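Issue 218. Parser rejects a valid record. Input:
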Amino acid sequence: MRQLLRKQWVQAGLAAGVVALAVGLWLFQPWRLFTSSTIDEALPMPPAPPVASAPTSTGTTAAVPEPTTTTAPKPTTVELASGAFVTQEHKTTGTAKVLRLADGNRVLRLEGLATSDGPDLHVWLTDATAGGEWGKYDDGRYVKLGALKATHGNQNYAIPAKAELDGLRSVVIWCDRFNVAFGSAPLSL
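Output the parser choked on:
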């Protein structure tokens, strides 16, 4: 009877250990310490204006006045704010820029980003100052721009048209699973 009881305890302990290991691997994803990804997105360009079609011939010749053309200044992309990333919980470097495109849309562009991989990483604009205590970014106002596309390179994130940028002071690479900032960059919006 004692040997049977001992075997059951051993089996239960092994089963609990396997479950704990599986949960720990899923939660912490330690292999991400050794993985990275790279992306190189071009600066977003607004769609080209429609091209006027040539007039079609109807067989009759009528004098059609030549249209007059005026050269309007070409709309350009405007940088609204920029800042260099500072390391917080994980080493992070690069530059963040908030841009207004020629069509009026706004984007956050990360250039030369280099950070660690991690589970559930996202890009946020926040009202917290960059740097300092790494858990503060979800305490105030923030705008979620999406999942981090890659740990390295140049990437663009559309800023929703309804997003109010006044008072937002930083961009943060945020780990939603553990509520920590990998890195942040100051912005003056």
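Fixed in the parser; the record now loads. The CA atoms of residues 32 and 155 lie 20 Å apart.
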